Amino acid sequence: MNWDDTAPTTDDADDRLVGASADGEDQAVEAALRPKSLDEFVGQERVREQLDLVLKAALARGATADHVLLSGSPGLGKTTLSMIIAAEMGAPIRITSGPAIQHAGDLAAILSSLQEGEVLFLDEIHRMSRPAEEMLYMAMEDFRVDVIVGKGPGATAIPLELPPFTLVGATTRAGLLPPPLRDRFGFTAHMEFYAPSELERVIHRSAQLLDVAIDTDGAAEIAGRSRGTPRIANRLLRRVRDYAQVKADGRITREIAATALGVYEVDGRGLDRLDRAVLQALLKLFAGGPVGLSTLAVAVGEERETVEEVAEPFLVREGLLARTPRGRVATPAAWAHLGLVPPGQGPGGGGQQGLFGT
Ligand SMILES: Nc1ncnc2c1ncn2[C@@H]1O[C@H](COP(=O)(O)OP(=O)(O)OP(=O)(O)O)[C@@H](O)[C@H]1O
Ligand SMILES: [Mg+2]
C-alpha cells in the first residue's frame, strides 16, 4: 500500500511517556476528558473564533456547515474538535479513517447511508486510497457519487444522490493532501502547539474531572513538560497522580510533580531519556557538531529513523538542535539546557572557536 509509505517507520514514539500519539490507556480515558463544546475547548483562539462563525452562520441559514479540514500534530485536539463540530450543529457524527477505506465501494457505502446534516469525520484523510479520494471529490462538491456496477466493458456508473453532509477531515500531514482535495474544504483549521498557560488550563480541567487535587504550581510544572500537547499533559497528569497517591497525600504540588516526572525521566522541558541521549552525544562526543545523522545514531545506539523521527522533531522545535546541510548542530540553548559549556568558552578557553569549530 504505497500511500502508507510516509507513515513513521518506528513504533517507539507510541511507547514513550512524552510520545504524542495515543496509546491504549489514553484511548480509554480520553473520551472522558474530551471537551464537549467550543466554549470548553481550551486555546486555539483563532481556530475557535473562525469555526464559531462558520457553524453559527450555517445554523442561522438552516444549512449544513461547510466541509472542514483540521490539520495539526498528534494530540492537539482534532478528533475532539470534530466531535464538537457535530455537537454544536446538533448533528450526529460518523467516524471513520483513511486507512479503513480501502476501496471506493467502502466509501460509497458510508456516504450513501449518511443522514441529512450528518458530520462525517474522516481521520488520517491523507491515507485514503486514490480511487476513494476521487469519489470523495464529487461527493464533497456535488453531493453525488457514481457507483460502478459490474466489471470490464459492461460496467456502468449509476449516479447516486447524497443528502447534504459536512465532511470533517483530519490530518497530521496537510502537505500530503492533493490540492484538489484540499481545495474542496470550505474551511481549514491549522492547530498550533499550546502555550504553557493553555496547558495549565487543560490540566486543571482534567484534574477536576479525574477528581485529583492539584495546585497552580503543580499544574504549571506539568504544563512545562508537556511539549505543547494536551494529550501529553493529560498523560503526565495521570502519572503524577499515581506518584502523589503512593508517595504523598494525593495532592499534586510543584515538588510532587517535579519529583514524579523525574522518576519517569521527563525533564523540566519535556525531554525524555532518548532526547537527552541524543543531545548529550552531540555535545559531549561531537563538540556540538556538525555531525551526520548516521554517526549520531550509532553514538546513541539507536536506529537512524528513531533519532530522526522520534527525537529530532521536538529538539528542533525547541531550538535545541538544528539540521544543517553539513549535519546536526547543537544550539547555545542545548549547551545551557544540559548545563555544559561549549568548547572554547569555558574558563581559560580564551574565546577561541571550539575544537571542531570552523
Ligand atoms: N483544546 C483542548 N482542550 C482540552 N483538552 C484537549 C484539547 N485538545 C485536546 N485535548 C485533549 O487531548 C486529548 C487528545 O486530543 P485528540 O484525540 O482530539 O487529538 P488528535 O489531534 O485527534 O490526535 P491524533 O492526531 O493522534 O488523532 C483528548 O483527551 C482531549 O481531551
Ligand atoms: Mg484523533
TrEMBL record:
It catalyses: ATP + H2O = ADP + phosphate + H(+). Pfam families: AAA_lid_4, RuvB_N, WHD_RuvB. Residues 64-197 form the AAA+ ATPase domain. CDD domains: AAA (cd00009). One of its GO terms (biological process) is DNA recombination. Residues 195-265 are annotated as: Small ATPAse domain (RuvB-S). InterPro entries: AAA+_ATPase, AAA_lid_4, DNA_helicase_Holl-junc_RuvB, P-loop_NTPase, RuvB-like_N, RuvB_wg_C, WH-like_DNA-bd_sf, WH_DNA-bd_sf. Its EC number is 3.6.4.-. ATP binds at L33, R34, G75, K78, T79, T80, E141, D142, F143, R184, Y194, R231. SUPFAM superfamilies: P-loop containing nucleoside triphosphate hydrolases (SSF52540), Winged helix' DNA-binding domain (SSF46785). GO terms for cellular component: cytoplasm; Holliday junction resolvase complex. Gene3D superfamilies: 1.10.8.60, P-loop containing nucleotide triphosphate hydrolases, Winged helix-like DNA-binding domain superfamily/Winged helix DNA-binding domain. Keywords: ATP-binding, Cytoplasm, DNA damage, DNA recombination, DNA repair, DNA-binding, Helicase, Hydrolase, Nucleotide-binding. Residues 268-358 are annotated as: Head domain (RuvB-H). The keyword ATP-binding applies. It is an enzyme of class 3 (hydrolase). Has 3 domains, the large (RuvB-L) and small ATPase (RuvB-S) domains and the C-terminal head (RuvB-H) domain. The head domain binds DNA, while the ATPase domains jointly bind ATP, ADP or are empty depending on the state of the subunit in the translocation cycle. During a single DNA translocation step the structure of each domain remains the same, but their relative positions change. The RuvA-RuvB-RuvC complex processes Holliday junction (HJ) DNA during genetic recombination and DNA repair, while the RuvA-RuvB complex plays an important role in the rescue of blocked DNA replication forks via replication fork reversal (RFR). RuvA specifically binds to HJ cruciform DNA, conferring on it an open structure. The RuvB hexamer acts as an ATP-dependent pump, pulling dsDNA into and through the RuvAB complex. RuvB forms 2 homohexamers on either side of HJ DNA bound by 1 or 2 RuvA tetramers; 4 subunits per hexamer contact DNA at a time. Belongs to the RuvB family. Homohexamer. Forms an RuvA(8)-RuvB(12)-Holliday junction (HJ) complex. HJ DNA is sandwiched between 2 RuvA tetramers; dsDNA enters through RuvA and exits via RuvB. An RuvB hexamer assembles on each DNA strand where it exits the tetramer. Each RuvB hexamer is contacted by two RuvA subunits (via domain III) on 2 adjacent RuvB subunits; this complex drives branch migration. In the full resolvosome a probable DNA-RuvA(4)-RuvB(12)-RuvC(2) complex forms which resolves the HJ. This is Holliday junction branch migration complex subunit RuvB. It comes from Streptomyces tirandamycinicus. The gene is ruvB.
